[in-house]
Design a protein that fits this description.
Shape: globular
Order of helices and strands: HEHHEHEHEHEEEHEHHEEEHHEH
Distance between the termini: 39 Å
Structural class: alpha/beta
Number of helices: 12
CATH superfamily: Divalent-metal-dependent TIM barrel enzymes
Radius of gyration: 21 Å
CATH architecture: Alpha-Beta Barrel
CATH topology: TIM Barrel
Helix content: 40-55%
Number of domains: 1
CATH class: Alpha Beta
Number of strands: 12
Strand content: 15-25%
Length: about 280
Amino acid sequence: MMKLQTRKDFIRNAAALTAGAAFMPGFLTAAPVQNVGIQLYSVRNDMLADAPGTLKKLAAIGFKNLESAGSEKGSYYGLQPKEFKKIASDLGMKLLSGHVHIDPKNWQKTVDEAAESGQTYLICSVMPSEGQTVSNYKRAAAVFNKSAEIAAKSNLVFGYHNHESEFEKENGQVLYDVLLNETDPAKVKFEMDLGWLILAGSDPAVYFKKYPGRFPLWHLKDMSKTARHSTEFGKGDIDLKALLAQAKAAGMKNYFVEQEEYTVPALQAMQYDFDFLKKL
C-alpha cells in the first residue's frame, strides 16, 4: 500500500530535487532567454535598408539588448544617437553596447555619441595597429588603457572584442594574454567571442578562471569547425548549453547572439536562434 505523502515530505523532497538539479552538469534555468541581446551585424543589411523597421522585428522576436556595429551609415545606421535610443526604448529594448574603431583624433566624439545613445559599453572590435607581435599588442594595450580612461569620464565601460588572430603566439606568448596582462583590470574589460576563441583551439573556462571578472560580455554563436564560419544555433560544433552553464563562474553579465553567415534569411535565422535558446 502506497504511503501518503505529507506536506512536510513534499517540501523536503522538492528541496532535495532542486538542490540536486543545481549540481547537474549543464543545468540551466530560464536565464538564457532573459534579456537576450543581439549584435546588429547579424542583421546588417536589414538595418541599412530600414533600421526602425528591423528593430521592430527584432523586438517582436524577443530581443531586449542591442549592440551596434559600424556600417556604411555609421554606428547608428543613419539615425542620430538620441533618435536610436528613443526608437529602441519605445520598443522595450536598450542599446547596451556598440562596436567601434579607435581613432585618437575622433575618440572623444565617439565617446560623446555613445553616451548620448545611452550605451553602457563601448567595445573596440579591431586592433588599433597592425602586427602580430608582443610589442604591438603591448602598444595596443596602452591605447586601450588611455581610451578606457576617457570613456570612463562619460560613465562608459571600455572593452575589446576578440577574433581568432589574437590567439596566435610569438615566442610562446599568446597575444590575447598580452592584452589581458598589460591592461588595467579595473578599466579595460573584454567581450569574449566564444566561437572564435574555441575555433582557435582555446578553452573559455581557462580564461574565466585565470582572469576573473574581465569578461562581462559574450558573443554567443555556433560555428562549423570545418567550414570555419558561423551558422544557426545547433547546426555547428559549439556546445552552447555547456557554455551558458559557465556564465556565473565567468561573471558574464550580458551576451549577444551573433551570426555572420546564414542558410536562411538573416531575420529568420535570428528567430531560429532565439527559439533554440528557449528550448535549452
